[in-house]
Amino acid sequence: MGAIGLSGFRPEQADDLSRYLKDAGRGEERFDVMVKGARCAGCIAKIERGVKAVPGVRDGRLNLSTGKLVVTGRSLKPETILRYVRDLGYDAQPFDAGEILDAGDWEGRFLLRCMAVAGFATVFTMGLTDAIWYGGGDLGTEARRNFFWLAGAISIPATLYSAQPFFQAAWRSIRSARAGMDVPISLALLLSLGMSIYQTATDGAHTYFDASVMLTFLLLIGRYLDHRLRDRARGAARHLLAMQTLLVRRQGPDGTIQTVPARELMPGDMVMLASGDRAPVNGMLADRGTELDLSLVTGEVLPQAVAQGALVQAGSVVTGLPVLLQATARVEDSLIADLARLLEAGQQVRNRYVRLADRAARAYVPGVFALSVLVMAGWLIAGAPLASAVTSAITILIITCPCALGLAVPAVQVVATERLFRKGVFVKSGDALERLAQIEKVVFDKTGTLTVGNPVLCDRERIAPEILDRAAKLARASRHPLATALADAAGPGEAASDVREVAGSGLERGSGADLERLGSATWCGAENPGAVQLWYRRGAEAPVGFRFEDRIRPDAKALVRELEAKGLSVEMLTGDVPLIAARIAGEVGITDWQAAVRPEQKAHHLEALAKANIRTLMVGDGLNDAAALAMAHVSIAPGTAADISQKAADMVLRGGDLMPIAEAIAVARKARRLVLENFALALAYNLTAIPLAALGMVTPLIAAATMAGSSLLVTLNALRLMGGGKS
Amino acid sequence: MTGIALLIASALLVGLGALGCLLWALSSGQYEDLEGDAQRILIDRPEDQ
Description:
The complex is a heterodimer of chains A (about 725) and B (about 50).
Chain A: E1 21-25, E2 28-36, H1 41-52, E3 57-63, E4 68-73, H2 78-87, E5 91-94, H3 106-135, H4 141-162, H5 164-175, H6 182-201, H7 209-243, E6 247-251, E7 257-261, E8 270-273, E9 283-285, E10 290-293, E11 304-306, E12 311-312, E13 317-318, E14 323-327, H8 335-351, H9 356-381, H10 386-399, H11 403-422, E15 425-427, H12 430-436, E16 441-445, H13 446-450, E17 451-457, H14 465-475, H15 481-490, E18 500-502, E19 506-509, E20 516-519, H16 521-524, E21 534-538, E22 544-546, E23 548-552, H17 556-565, E24 569-573, H18 578-588, E25 592-594, H19 599-611, E26 616-619, H20 626-631, E27 634-637, H21 643-648, E28 651-653, H22 660-694, H23 700-719
Parallel strand pairs in A: 16-24, 16-26, 24-25, 26-27, 27-28
Antiparallel strand pairs in A: 1-2, 2-4, 2-5, 3-4, 6-7, 6-8, 8-14, 9-12, 9-14, 10-11, 10-13, 15-28, 17-23, 18-19, 19-20, 20-21, 21-22
Chain B: H1 2-27, H2 34-40
């Protein structure tokens, strides 16, 4: 089920997608495709080679980070290209630049460019000025001054250019009257440049040209790492938008069929939905009844029969006969858009979380300013001239510049993220790790999370092999989950070709005494259905029932025990009936559970927990969990989860195992400890330098050494998280 | 003194050259898909197979 994305559109030859072709110059055309599911080198090779085999295509290149495949060539046929990619086993949609931000990672590139400039200037300026501090005694004052002016000529423009990210952030935080690390950083940079110019002009020796560029360079490394972690979270939001760009087939009043983007649908339009298609908007079944998978709306896995004229919510998937849907709302007013808004609300809740680095800044910044004012006052009271008192105060601001603090958090988070990635957990944002380290409670969804999510035949030994064989022949012709489960249980075999599907009832073939039926109890004439979901009957023989149950994931029980050992309380919320919920909860060892919970109740429950100040981890997979995932303090979705839930969650598991959740919590806690250690290290390093600065004994060499040294120490400490994978 | 001036000037030129190369690589999109580029080295060229 999870494999079906929100974009259920499967292109056919008849669809006209030429509106997505762009002019690529030199008589060539370009077609951008959004590919989902590509993960490795094998995927790249397969897709690019596959696309190049399409007539007219000259080149195809897939960007693995964004999932965008750019196809160029002459007289391209978009629908053929999409079909080729789909035949290779990947979901493909036209890439709609109008909806998806095509700008790419502008900020990341800007940070890299700043880093390049700062790195170059650092090396060059250090070559000029550090030489003076080692052998400067031999140089005449005039030669030294020339060296300093040259260093300034490089480092002043370089700092002003490459420290723009800090200046901008500092300006923002000043305007909103919040203390951030960027204010002391910007101040230290500007003051060190200003003081260096003053020192050079007055033939002084204490210039900080090299310190200003080095500081910028080191801080930019931290900023870039942080940006890359955050960019993943933004990427998730972009994909959510992309899912709304799906295409639909609209039937005009004259019966002609047009392929249009779903957002162009107006109330009253007729949309053709084939089996497997997802309703793009709220609407009404216009021509007949069918079966719908309502898992988005209710969380119920089994399809339900819906009659003609019934109202259908966007996101429902047609599993029965193809139907015509008359739209009653536009895409923006339909359910998926509601969900997207809910997710957005959840994101805002999370934005209120104050990151560790910002909390450190709130304590650090006023302290440092107070200190430098005190030092200046002290010198003035002691009778020192104003110039040297100001110099000491400025030196304190420069030397306490939170260089290592800027690296302390991102360095740890990058290492932790990489380690978890190897363990099968994809972490989408750095502060998700911080939030995960704080949790006190874990809430699980049942179906698809604690359980595998697919029904499995559970009373196989009771059923005669011959009957199972015959029933499976019928079942193989259907995509209904129970039919699929029955076919799985019977193993591979042939499918009957003359099967008729009766919406809301089941499958049948043959007639008279040979009439075979597979479906609901009433349709097969069975009495006392009880917990039996599927029946088979041949002619006048007695009907045979098949019972299905969801299987528990093998490591669910061990995980629950592990979480409780970590001191966390565990709860289960499910939309399923109490009977089954009680059984599953008992088997995995959860005592605290609620059944028959609707999706919005799940979200409310998580909200209530947040209000009660209980920090909660939500683990869920279904579309109906998406809102709850977004509301939780932090959330994890299994890799089999629905697209929208994967987008809503902070972390996604790669395989079918649940145990990595415990690993993620352990790593998050360890990362938090390392971050705090890093703060302490950086602070200790600065504290040794402050007395020297207060006494006016700091030389630029000491300043450079403390900055580089503390950054190195903090980074090395972060790398400690890499090992210990064995435990 | 002319020696030093020449050395500094040439060091500056080399450094700026390297910086220029990096900025060009950035603007020509070579840093757009780091993940994909890391994977691409694993792809065999068709003629090698």
